[in-house]
Specification:
The chain has helices at about 1-10, 15-35, 70-75, 90-95, 105-115, 145-150, 155-165, 210-220, 235-240, 255-260, 290-300, 305-340, 345-360, 360-375, 380-405, 410-420, 425-455, 465-475, 480-515; strands at about 60-65, 80-85, 100-105, 120, 130-135, 185-190, 195, 200, 205-210, 225-230, 245-250, 260-275. By secondary structure, it is of the alpha/beta class. The strands form two sheets. Strands 1, 2, 3, 4, 5, 6, 10, 11 and 12 form a nine-stranded mixed beta sheet that branches. A three-stranded antiparallel beta sheet has the order 7-8-9, sandwiched between helices. The longest helix has about 35 residues, at about 305-340. Residues about 1-10, about 35-45, about 280-285 and about 515-520 have low confidence and may be disordered.
Length: about 525
C-alpha cells in the first residue's frame, strides 16, 4: 500500500514550485498573445470628443501634484471625478483601457504622446495659457542671478531649442557637454525623468531634454556645473523646498498655487490641454505576432541601450534587499535579546517602535527619512532606502522571531536551568534553536515581501527595478511589455531568493545536527 502511494506521489503530484512556475508561464504567454494580436489604430489623431463640454460627467486625470481641478471645472463643467497618477504613461494606459476619459497635460508632453501613440489625440481647444517654469526655493537668493543668465540667452536661440526637442529628428537631440571650467562650483537640479520632450532619461540613465539644455545654457553663463537627479514629478518640488536641490525642472507649468510654494523663472510659453482617445479608424495592416513581439522587446530593451537601465535597477533592488535583509535580521535578534532581559523601559521602547512601523505605510517611512530625518546631512537615496527597509523588515522579523520564542514549551527552559545552564545560555542554546523551525518560513515570507516593497524606493529617487520600468514606459509610450518584463524579473528574483533562503536553512540544520553533546559546562 505504501509503495503504491509513493509511486502515485512520484508520478502524479507536481511540486508546488513547479506548479507556480507553470501557471506563471502559461499566464504570461496568454497575456502576450492577447497583447500582440492584430490591433487597429486610429488613422488620424481626431479626438473622441468634439468640445470640452462633452467631457461633463466624465472622469479626468492629472499628474499627482498638479492642482488644476478648478481650471478644468471652469472650462468643462462638472466632471464625474478626478484621478491622479504618478506618470503620463500610467494615465495613457488608464485612458486606453477606459478607466478615465481624459487627462490634463501641457502642450509639449501632450503633443509628444499623441505623436507616439495613434490611439491618443489632443482636444483642439486649450484649457488655458501659461508658461513653463524653473522652480526655486521660496525666497531663494540664487534665483536673481539665474534669471539674469536666462535673460542673456537670445530669443532666437530659445526657439531653436524648442524646435530641436519637440521635432521628430532624434539625431539632433544631443546635449552639450559641461566643458566650461565651473569655477563657481556645482549645483543640484531635481528633474522629472518621465516627461519627454522636456526632461527624460535615456537608456543609460542620463537625463536629457529641452529643460536640461536650457539649464545648461544658464549654467555656462554662470560658470557652474549642474548635477541632475531624476525622479517622479511629485518629488521635484519637495526636493527644492527641503534644500536638497537648488532648482527643479521637468515640464513644470506655472500657476498661482505653485507660486505660493516656490519661486519661478518663467522660461517658455505653454498651454494646458486635454488628451483623449482617438475617434476611431484603421491604419490597416499588422506586423503579426512575432513582429509585434520583437518590436516590443526591441523598444523595451535594445533601443538606446535601455537594458542598461534595467540592469541598474535590478542591481539596486538586489543590493537594497540583501543589505536591508541582513541588517534587519541583526536588528531583530538584538531586539529579541533585549526583550528577553525583560527590562520595562526596553520593552516599552520596542513596543512603540514595532507599533509605529506596523501603523505607518512603508512609502511614508521612506519619505520621512529622506526629506526630514536625513535632510540636514544630505545622505544619498540608496543608504536611506537601506535604513528604511532595515527598520521595516527588522520590526516584522522581530515580531515573527519573538512569537516563535514564546511558543517554545516553557519546560525546555526549566529543564535547561535544572541542568545548570544560566538564563542567557539556556535562551541562546536551547530556546532559540528550537524556535527556528517555527519562525524561519515566516521570516522567509517577510523577506520576500520586503524585496517586492523595494519597488516604492523610486519615491525617494532610487532607480530600482520598477522605477526603471517606469522610465522605459515613458519613452516607449507602451505600458504592457515593460510591465510584464518587470513582473518576470521580480518573479525570477524572488524565486532565486527563496531557494537561497532554503539552502541557508538546510546548512543551519546540518550544523545543528552535527553538534555533539559535551555535557554541561558549570
Amino acid at each position: 500500500m505504501k509503495k503504491e502511494k509513493h509511486s502515485i506521489s512520484r508520478r502524479g503530484i507536481i511540486p508546488p514550485e513547479k506548479k507556480v512556475m507553470s501557471v506563471f508561464i502559461l499566464l504570461l504567454v496568454f497575456m502576450i498573445l492577447c497583447h500582440t494580436a492584430p490591433v487597429s489604430y486610429a488613422a488620424a489623431s481626431k479626438p473622441e470628443y468634439d468640445s470640452l463640454s462633452d467631457l461633463q460627467g466624465k472622469t479626468v486625470a492629472m499628474l499627482t501634484g498638479a492642482p488644476f481641478e478648478e481650471l478644468i471645472t471652469s472650462k468643462v463643467g462638472e466632471v464625474k471625478e478626478f484621478q491622479y497618477f504618478s506618470s503620463i504613461t500610467d494615465m495613457e494606459l488608464a485612458l486606453k483601457t477606459g478607466k478615465i476619459d481624459a487627462f490634463m497635460m501641457n502642450n509639449a508632453a501632450g503633443e509628444y504622446a499623441a505623436n507616439m501613440d495613434p490611439e491618443l489625440a489632443l482636444m483642439e481647444e486649450p484649457l488655458g495659457l501659461t508658461s513653463f517654469g524653473f522652480a526655486f526655493e521660496k525666497g531663494s537668493t540664487e534665483i536673481e542671478k539665474w534669471q539674469k543668465a536666462y535673460d542673456q540667452i537670445p530669443d532666437e536661440e530659445k526657439d531653436e531649442l524648442w524646435v530641436k526637442w519637440t521635432g521628430s529628428d532624434e539625431s539632433k537631440k544631443i546635449l552639450p557637454e559641461q566643458d566650461w571650467p565651473g569655477e563657481e562650483g556645482t549645483v543640484k537640479a531635481a528633474v522629472c525623468d518621465t516627461l519627454p520632450p522636456m526632461s527624460y532619461a535615456l537608456g543609460d540613465g542620463k537625463l536629457t531634454g529641452f529643460d536640461i539644455e536650457m539649464i545648461l545654457k544658464m549654467a555656462k553663463i554662470l560658470d557652474v556645473h549642474v548635477e541632475f537627479t531624476g525622479m517622479e514629478f511629485s518629488s521635484i518640488m519637495p526636493e527644492v523646498q527641503s534644500g536638497k536641490a537648488l532648482l527643479a525642472a521637468g515640464s513644470i507649468v506655472i500657476n498661482d498655487e505653485r507660486k505660493k510654494a516656490v519661486d519661478f523663472i518663467d522660461y517658455y510659453p505653454a498651454k494646458f490641454v486635454l488628451e483623449v482617445r482617438s475617434a476611431g479608424g484603421d491604419t490597416g495592416g499588422s506586423k503579426g505576432f512575432w513582429g509585434e513581439l520583437y518590436e516590443s522587446f526591441s523598444k523595451t530593451f535594445l533601443t538606446d541601450g535601455r537594458y542598461q537601465m534595467v540592469l541598474t535597477g535590478l542591481f539596486d533592488t538586489v543590493f537594497i534587499s540583501i543589505s536591508a535583509g541582513i541588517l534587519g535580521v541583526l536588528l531583530a535578534f538584538a531586539l529579541v535579546f533585549l526583550r528577553h532581559k525583560n527590562n520595562r523601559v526596553c520593552n516599552r521602547i520596542i513596543n512603540i517602535y514595532t507599533a509605529l512601523i506596523a501603523g505607518i505605510p512603508a512609502v511614508v517611512i521612506l519619505m520621512v527619512l529622506y526629506y526630514i530625518v536625513f535632510n540636514t546631512i544630505n545622505l544619498s537615496p540608496i543608504p536611506v532606502a537601506i535604513i528604511g527597509f532595515m527598520l521595516i523588515f527588522g520590526a516584522r522579523a522581530y515580531s515573527v522571531i519573538w512569537n516563535a520564542v514564546e511558543a517554545v514549551d516553557p519546560g525546555q527552559r526549566e529543564a535547561a536551568l535544572a541542568l545548570g545552564y544560566s538564563e542567557n545560555k539556556a535562551f541562546r542554546q536551547i530556546i532559540l534553536p528550537q524556535s527556528r523551525s517555527m519562525y524561519f518560513s515566516l521570516l522567509q515570507t517577510q523577506f520576500i515581501t520586503m524585496v517586492k516593497e523595494t519597488s516604492i524606493a523610486g519615491y525617494i529617487t532610487v532607480l530600482e527595478l520598477t522605477r526603471a520600468g517606469d522610465l522605459i514606459r515613458s519613452r516607449t509610450m507602451e505600458a504592457f511589455f515593460p510591465l510584464i518584463a518587470i513582473a518576470v524579473f521580480y518573479f525570477v528574483l524572488t524565486r532565486i531568493f527563496v531557494q537561497i533562503i532554503k539552502l541557508i536553512y538546510k546548512l543551519l540544520g546540518r550544523r545543528r545536527d552535527s553538534r555533539k553533546i559535551k555535557g554541561v559546562d558549570l
